[in-house]
Design brief:
Elements lengths: L17 E9 L2 E8 L2 E6 L5 H9 L4 E3 L12 E6 L7 H8 L4 E5 L2 E3 L2 E13 L5 H10 L2 E6 L6 E6 L7 H9 L4 E11 L3 E5 L2 E5 L2
Antiparallel strand pairs: 1-2, 2-7, 3-5, 3-6, 4-5, 7-8, 8-10, 8-11, 9-10, 11-12, 12-13
């Protein structure tokens, strides 16, 4: 059963490209980001064909694929859509994309130090020495999250996956976990967009070919 959420949404005036400020924790400090509303960052299920991706994009006439993306150069599960004519994208459009079966996650991206970053549906945590795996399981269950496999190279580090129907996105969920005091760190996976994507995983950057 899907969880019904009541969320207060910000009202946008004019065509401002930025929404409310967001943050995540990194080395016990808050890293502040500005959320953009002129783009949507999407993660699709793997294996979609070019025609399926084009049909997905064309399902809403208010958005288009970013102009520097050429699908003929390769298919990727990560897409950045942008508003036509420089306007902002409504939360209704965002929710319609999230509801599609072929989409794993859809979020407004973030802007920080001239870099645009996309948020996907996962974050990573590392248990503190006195935190049990059962405590992690209980916290994940209560918040409708699933736990991935333990990192082969980092003991007690796990990737946590957030349902697209959750009240909280992966960044907010990551903050919620961190603020319990049970984890050495809890950080969202952000993909930096600069014509190519780089995924931040375990504090390192790994190229993702588009």
């Amino acid at each position: 059963m899907r969880k019904i959420c009541i969320i207060t949404l910000s009202v946008f005036f004019g065509i401002s490209l930025f929404a409310q400020e967001s943050f995540y924790y990194y080395k016990d400090k808050k890293i502040h980001l500005q959320q953009r509303t002129d783009k949507i960052f999407i993660r699709t299920v793997q294996g979609l064909q070019k025609e399926q991706i084009l049909a997905l994009i064309d399902s809403d006439t208010s958005v288009q694929l970013t102009l520097d993306k050429d699908l003929d150069k390769g298919i990727s599960e990560y897409l950045m859509l942008e508003a036509r004519e420089g306007s902002h994208i409504s939360t209704t459009t965002l929710e319609l994309f999230k509801a599609r079966a072929e989409i794993i996650s859809a979020t407004f991206p973030f802007h920080h130090n001239e870099i645009i970053s996309g948020l996907i549906d996962e974050f990573m945590v590392k248990l503190k020495q006195n935190t049990s795996f059962e405590q992690l399981q209980n916290l994940a269950k209560v918040n409708n999250c699933t736990i991935g496999k333990e990192n082969l190279f980092v003991k007690n580090q796990f990737m946590i996956h957030v349902s697209k129907f959750s009240c909280l996105n992966a960044m907010l969920m990551s903050n919620l976990f961190y603020e319990t005091g049970l984890f050495a760190y809890s950080e969202p996976n952000l993909l930096q967009y600069n014509k190519n994507f780089n995924v931040k995983f375990n504090n390192k950057l790994k190229n993702i070919s588009l």
